[in-house]
User: Fold these one by one.
Assistant:
Number 1:
Amino acid sequence: MDALDSVVTEYGYEDTEALMEGLNQLGDASVRLQNLRSELSSLRREVKEVEASPIFCETIKLDSACPVFPRETCRSEVTECDGMSFDLVRQPSYWIGSADGETQFIQRYARDARKEMRVVVKPFKGVIG
């Protein structure tokens, strides 16, 4: 018993009861840590599943009202991806690309505008339909 008391005081505890309390707290903390590790592992699996699931996009070509000439129609392409809307609208001499109503770029040629729109849409899509 004297040896136990000397070890207890050596590690900074007042007596064996304080040591037992500290060991119980350590056990509780160990269980909590194990639960947190398990939860973290589960959350990592969920994140991987969400990242792996593709977001489907649909592109529709249509004629819409021209912002510059409201009485005329302009060729446009609307791409919808998981609630986001990406518009590519032809003006008299250029194309305007926008995401959710905010202009992202202006390009003179359709080919260049479509390339740039793919860059804008890419982070939001998995598969284009």
Number 2:
Amino acid sequence: MLQHNPLYIFFILHPFLFSGLFGIYGTQKQTSDQRIQHYLENYKKLATTDALTNLYTRSFFKHMATKELQRNERDRNNLCLLFFDIDHFKEVNDQHGHAAGDKLLTDVAVLLKQQTRPYDIIARWGGEEFIALLPNTSKEEAFLYAERFRKTLSKETFSASSIHFNITISCGIAQFKSNYSLERLIDEADQALYLAKHNGRNCTKHFYEVSKEKA
């Protein structure tokens, strides 16, 4: 009698039907999960990475640097912060166009990445300024690092379309001391950078030289 029941074919086929339906559901869920994961990864990248240079953003640098300073306060290691600023960047934009300026920022970021270690924290601070936090680095080592990078850039020929030009950078260095806040460290490096600009650009200055200048 069961064979003559209209639902008989359903009872026979229901394992296959349900497995097919669950298979479709599983595939769709996997696709949905992958899409959500892709969106989350893109959102994280937008929140942490500068769109032009692919370096960290200013806000994410502050987040990472604060954690590093807390760790450094505990471990009592050397740590330095560096500000880099491209000299006369406005002239690059004015003379060669903003596309050339953007290309220059991208190229400088690539070179800066090549010069830093995996655990260094580097970011685009804003405009033509870059910032680097160097753990386990004395002020003497930071100076050598900054000078090496400065000289590398001064020898490099940059190009955009058929335009070729050279640049220089200025650098300011500050060394972390016990109980320093990130804001104080940034301010000291910024003052050192201003001194480098004031002394003719294309040079590296340390914050302790700022105190000597004011004395």
